[in-house]
Amino acid sequence: MKRISILGSTGSIGTQTLDVVAMHPEAFEVDGLAAGNNTALLLEQVRRFKPRRVSVSTKELAEEIRSSLPAGVELYSGSEGLVEIAAGGDAETVVTALVGSVGLQSTLAAIEAGRHIGLANKETLVTAGHLVTELAGRKGVKLLPVDSEHSAIFQCLNGENREDVAAITITASGGSFRDYKREELKNVTVEDALRHPNWSMGAKITIDSATMVNKGLEVIEAHHLFALPYEQIDVLLHPESIIHSYVEFRDSSIIAQLGTPDMRVPIQYALTYPDRWPSPAKRLSLAQVASLTFREMDYERYPALKMAIDCGIAGGTFTTAFNAANEVAVARFLRGEIPFLRIDEIIDEVLQRHHNAANPGLEEIHLCDMASRELAAVL
Predict the structure, then answer these.
(1) Which of 4, 315, 357, 377 is the most buried if burial means most Cβ atoms within 10 Å?
(2) Which residues make Cβ contacts (< 8 Å) with residue 171, sequence separation at least 6?
């Protein structure tokens, strides 16, 4: 049996990872679960999957659930708890399903401990991709992508010579407002933004999809995961979300990965690689789909995507500043403090004031992250 731990077990990716585990109970054993504040769901997961180690966001929540845990379950909390679940215990693979840059420290700890990573936390590579990939290479750890787009590219590259790659294209659904003109976004609500037409995701990622920030983060992540320059990474609007991404080779051949929009497919592939097992996902019928449509990316319509790519090209701490500003701006929008279009403006204003540090270490990244968050909170 393969032992796994999940960081962010009560979120969208975490719960779908456990769906995969439940479908193959003879193949997986859950060693550890780390959650945030949803202790009711966490306790249900503990009763069903019987992890040896559990963590929640605060000491107070830990004390609240202590008496409800089965005997022998180790209980942790806070950032130290995330590190314990990631690097302690006996897990072979750690699924990093946390949202935001909070996942960086625990991911690095898991890699240091020799755990393979099922990577759903794209912000880890956005904020410190050079550190993460260097450490993974040194430790012989696999970074197995869980994002549907990166999983698609990973699958398309299987068995191929990387020198033959001409370009990769990341597809984008366009999010909740893909048929809106920019001027029509002035008065959209949080509820409007959270109605994603294709995917079931958490609130923050759904908003990122609407602004196309999510696609910008994915471009930066792809740069680090596949060691490709930015000029070889394209983005294409594909409203149906059937082609999850594709690779073009220098002989003009294109290999694409297709499937219904179901995150359990890339999650399972990250857990079973290089094998393929039966999946709970609905089978794709191209006859029923009938047609697939595509549109060139409009960077004026989605300025945050252009900002993300520019930050990736600039390198250094620019990507950290971008990610931090976006996380704060999205949180402010979800709380009703700012209008939707203000998200892009706050990111831009933070970047305009940013003083870049080339090839930063962890301390510089941490300081940049804090400073960018503080600025984004008051703009």
Answers:
(1) 4
(2) 149, 235, 236, 237, 238, 241, 243, 244, 245, 246
